[in-house]
Amino acid sequence: MLLSISFNNLSFRFIRGISSSLPFVLHQHPPTCSTKCLNENSHDSREETLISFFKSCSTMRELSQIHAQIISAGLEQHVYVIGRLISFCCVSENGSMDYASLVFEQLNWPDGFLYNTMIRGLGRVGRDEDALLFFKRMRERGKAADNFTFAFLLKICGHMTAVELGRQIHCCIVKHGLESNVYVCNTLIRMYGLFSEISAARQVFEEITSRDLVS
């Protein structure tokens, strides 16, 4: 498949020595006194308490302290809790994609949401090739792509001015039965507009069964 050939020419820049880094994080930012309360609570209460910490988190230093508490509470494989941590790294202006990659690589069973979050974050900071390789890994691990996955990928194709890759992803969208999804279609129209592919953009527009104001 042409999409696979395109991926083979990309280089990946993942952090090395990740396994030895997390103990360093815990050492550098030891759990605060609130960890004692966490350990005394039930498992569900600990999850809720940790998740509540993210509401006031605004810096990577604060995030690393929360991460240390997550590790101390034994929840470093809890997909939802770790998902909040990775989301901060990927979406916040004060986040860090290197830190997100470090945490992601420690997960035994990352779900589709986490792959989408990483693809979105890498695209946001201009690491487009890494984002595409995350999509490749997502497919290899049998995780289903959804409308968010393809919307993020189409934006990346626009950044890269990768016309042919954009067309290939459009084919994948059709294969997944998402060619009528308004969110995906709007992103397709924007991508083809960036490529000055007006006829392709118009065709996508004409095939939208339920248009919104963006369309």
TrEMBL record:
Positions of PPR repeats: 111-145
Coiled-coil residue spans: none
Species of provenance: Ananas comosus var. bracteatus
GO annotation, biological process: RNA modification
Taxonomic lineage of the native organism: Eukaryota, Viridiplantae, Streptophyta, Embryophyta, Tracheophyta
The name this protein goes by in its record: Pentatricopeptide repeat-containing protein
Keywords, in A-Z order: Repeat, Transit peptide
Keyword Transport: no
Gene Ontology molecular function terms on file: RNA binding
Cited Pfam families: PPR, PPR_2
